[in-house]
Structures are given as C-alpha cells and as structure tokens.
Design brief:
- By secondary structure, this protein is of the alpha/beta class.
- It has two domains: 2-233, Rossmann fold; 237-246 and 319-494, P-loop containing nucleotide triphosphate hydrolases (Rossmann fold), CATH 3.40.50.
- It is 48% helix and 15% strand.
- The protein contains 22 helices and 18 strands.
- It has a seven-stranded parallel beta sheet. Strands 12-13-11-14-15-10-18 form a seven-stranded parallel beta sheet, with helices on both faces. The chain has a two-stranded antiparallel sheet with strand order 6-7.
- Helix 12 (247-271) packs antiparallel against helix 15 (297-317), helix 14 (283-291) crosses helix 15 (297-317) and helix 19 crosses helix 20 (447-460).
C-alpha cells in the first residue's frame, strides 16, 4: 500500500482529483495507471507530438479522452480533431465520450462528423463551430473541408490519431519502402502549415519502417507509459489450435503447392531470387506490388497467378468446397460448448453456411457486409445477451469492435499476418485475471499448418513492456510448435 501511495503522489493532486471525478462521471472504475498514462501524454504534448502505445484492453481510447479534456482545459478556445480509420470506431469514440457533456464543471461538446452531417453544409459548419472535439475519418475530413470555417480550422491545435500503426503502408516503389496511407496524406495536406500537435495511439507493435516514418515525419516522441497497477489488466490469451483433417483438402492443397513452386521459380528468374529472399517477412505484400506491374508484364502475370492460387487456397481452407464442412462442424461444437462465443470467418459464404447448419439449439446472430446496416443490430443482440453465438466476417470484426462479454473466440483459419492475428485474438478482451481461449482451426498437413506455425511463433515471442507475455500455449501445442522450424512464405514456396 505504501508503494502505491508513493506512486500516486508522483501525480499532481489536482490532476489526480480530476481523473477520479471524470471516472466517476463516466461510470468507469478509477485506474491509477490510466491517470499516469494521461498525465505523461499531456506533459509530453507540451513539448511536441506523441506516439503512445498501450496494450489492448487497457483503455487507450479513454486515456486519450482524459488527455483531450485536460488539454482543452489548459488551452481555452482550442479544438481537438479525432481521426479514426473506420466509421465504426468513429461512432464508438463518440459514444464513449458521452460523459464529457454530463455533470462537469466544464462540459465539452463532441460532434461526430459523419456522412449525414457532412451533407448539410450550413448545419455542419455551425455544429463544428460550437464543438470542442470533432470525430471523423480522414477521407471525410479531407473531402468535406468546406464544412470547416477558417476559424474552426485555425482552432484545431491537437489531432488525435487512433490506430496510428495503420497510417504507414508498405510501398516498395518508395525509397524507404513505406509511405503514409493516401487518406492520411490528404489529411496532413489539409492541416499543412498549422501549428498542431499529434497524439498517435496504438496497441500494436510498429514495424521498423513505420516507426521511422512516424517518428521522423511527424516528429513524435515514442511513449510507453507504465505503472505497476496495469499488470492485472494486461491481455493474456490462451491460443488453442484445432487440427482438422480432410484427405481431399490435402490433395488439392498439394496441387496448389506444386503450381506455386513452378510460379515462384519463374518469378525468381524474372526479378532475381536474391530479391525474393530479401522479402522473407513481407513476401505477399511485395507480390501485390509486382502484380501492379512494377517489374514488367511477365512478373505481373506470374504475381497475379500466385495471388490467385492463394485466393483459391483461402477458399479451400474456409470450407467453401461443396460437401466439405469439417471446420463448420468443429467450430459449431466449440462455440456451443464455450458460450457466449464469436466465430470469425473470412468468407461471407462461410457465415451463411454456418447459419444454415443443422444442430443450433438456439438462434444465432449473423453479421456480414451484404446485410448493410442490419449487421449492427445483430451485433447488438449478441452484446446484450439475446444471442449466444455471433457469426461474423473478419472484415467487420475489425479494430475497435470488441466483445468483452464473449467467453471464447473461434477463428476458422489463421491469417498470414501475425499483426492482424494479434488484433483479432484480443477482441474478447481477456486479461491476466480472466484468461480466455481463442480457438484457431487449421487443416493439418497443408500450407495452413505451416502458416499457423509461423504466426504463432511470432505471437508467442511478443512481450509487453519487455517483460510480460501476451499469449500462452498448452504443453502439447508447445511441443508441436518446437517440432519443426517455422518457414517463411519464400522458404515454403522454394521447398
């Protein structure tokens, strides 16, 4: 207790009281580490832009709101622009920020600058003028700049960038191999020439190239705020691989591997094997660049053929084949035994297949992009407890869409990117006090097994604050992981 008190005293008393008041108003439990993180962020912003990393489930969005509130108290007449990559995150941010307009000494107006508002220019201009915080996506901000008066634009002095690790993208036509996403580049052009601070937020480790871009061009100071009270809230996920077997899947996968090996051999002759070997860690990203015609038409045709094979493979592993529903049966059994449960599917067809599957003893929630806005109502039914299982495509189960009420998550196939898998596996918000399981289905003796081995090796090696692991495996699967060396895509294609 003494240690906690000493650590609390490192915060100014007035700020500690403020965070306790805001936590009470917002209906959240007061957490010391969030107060420390917001204070560190606020102090660092006084010197320049900040890139803040906080693990999933520790409340980085709320911390950014605490920073914004305190920043606006210090800078009367200023505005804060919050930029999020998706409309789902935009609405979530606005909902979470509802406490700012409640019983506070200084109430703040938070405006969701969405498509409907943007189409009402005069109303939008008036609402933005009166707002303290404007939440938008980068595309909408850049395309509807006329809704912002010169006075409003001039008042923006802090720009909060959520999921900032998404803004840098790999582009091998650039000298450094990375550039800002077009939408963010447009947003920066709109804010060009203004004295503005950036507060970037992420829960994902940045690539070396991404870090160089963000720290260099934005001039951000990297911040990993740590307080020992955060430890129980750090994410802890139990990965549970589930091996599936189907002799026909194995045979079809072998045919694709044979085709890929020949395509890889020809591509190596075209662009140079040493070039391909340089891209062990970002091979498929590089292949997509070649498919754009960077190295000529022959390389383009070979790259497109490789990508088409991978598309067929993904459909193969997602049980798209007629009368092949090994994973459907397996995932359904897991979800029923571990309710409430979320099932992530890559293909919409697989979601529909699950929905039609016999044996569900209850009605399930279904969410995919072909449903339009109706998928939001389905997700709400699951979150409220009216549905015990949610079937959702992975493009909708993106960042910011969390399911803390779920006991388990089922992934019908592993992704090639361990960074994407890291985000997906933390959607159920498990932590060291309540570890949850993520079941990852894969077809054994296929490329999918090699892909899963490679991804899990990366995930198991992750550490938060260089001390705490995020993922665990059972003894059986640890032995499986160590039984073979994980192969990169280049090694697998050339084997």
């Amino acid at each position: 207790m003494r240690s906690t008190q000493r650590q609390d005293l490192s915060l100014p008393n007035h700020f500690l009281r403020l965070v306790k008041q805001l936590s009470r108003v917002s209906g959240r439990d007061f957490r010391v580490y969030q107060a420390h993180a917001s204070w560190e962020g606020l102090c660092s912003l006084a010197a320049g832009s900040v890139l803040m990393t906080l693990p999933q489930g520790t409340g980085k969005t709320y911390v950014s709101q605490l920073v914004a509130y305190a920043y606006l108290q210090r800078n009367q007449g200023a505005k804060v622009l919050v930029v999020v990559p998706t409309r789902e995150l935009r609405e979530q941010y606005v909902d979470m920020a509802g406490w700012m307009g409640q019983d506070l000494d200084e109430r703040l107006v938070v405006v969701s600058f969405d498509e409907r508002l943007a189409n009402m220019r005069s109303a939008a201009a008036a609402m933005v003028e009166d707002a303290h915080i404007v939440v938008t996506t980068p595309q909408l901000f850049a395309n509807r700049l006329s809704c912002f008066s010169k006075r409003s634009l001039k008042a923006i002095s802090l720009c909060i960038l959520d999921e900032i690790d998404l803004w840098p993208i790999e582009d091998f036509e650039e000298d450094e191999g990375v550039r800002f996403h077009d939408s963010f580049a447009a947003l920066r052009a709109c804010l060009n020439g203004r004295t503005i601070r950036f507060l970037g937020l992420t829960a994902s480790p940045l690539t070396n190239r991404g870090r160089t871009l963000l720290l260099g061009e934005l001039g951000c100071k990297e911040l990993h705020p740590f307080h020992r009270t955060v430890i129980p809230h750090l994410p802890m996920v139990r990965i549970e691989p589930i091996a599936c077997f189907d002799s026909r899947i194995i045979a079809l996968d072998a045919e694709i591997s044979k085709s890929n090996k020949e395509l890889f051999r020809r591509l190596g002759k075209e662009v140079g094997f040493h070039i391909l070997e340089m891209h062990q860690d970002d091979f498929w990203v590089y292949v997509k660049t070649l498919a754009g015609g960077r190295e000529g038409q022959q390389a383009r045709r070979l790259a497109l053929a490789l990508l088409d094979n991978q598309r067929k493979r993904n459909q193969l592993f997602e049980d798209i084949l007629p009368r092949r529903q090994v994973k459907v049966t397996c995932a359904k059994d897991i979800a029923q035994a571990n309710q409430p449960s979320v099932i992530f599917c890559r293909e919409i067809r697989l979601v529909k297949c699950f929905a039609k599957a016999n044996g569900w003893p209850f009605e399930v929630a279904i969410a995919h992009s072909e449903m339009g806005d109706r998928y939001s109502a389905e997700i709400a039914k699951f979150k409220s407890g009216h549905r015990r299982v949610l079937l959702i495509t992975r493009d909708l189960g993106k960042r910011g869409l969390d399911f803390p009420m779920a006991s388990s998550l089922v992934l019908c196939s592993p992704k090639s990117s361990w960074r994407t898998m890291d985000q997906e596996m933390c959607r159920t918000r498990s932590n060291r006090e309540k570890e949850k399981r993520v079941y990852v289905l894969f077809y054994e003796r296929t490329y999918e097994e090699a892909k899963l081995r490679r991804v899990i090796t990366k995930l198991i090696g992750m550490q938060m604050y260089r001390r705490f692991t995020k993922y665990t495996l059972s003894r059986y699967w640890t032995k499986w992981l160590l039984a073979e060396k994980p192969l990169t895509p280049v090694e697998y294609l050339s084997a």
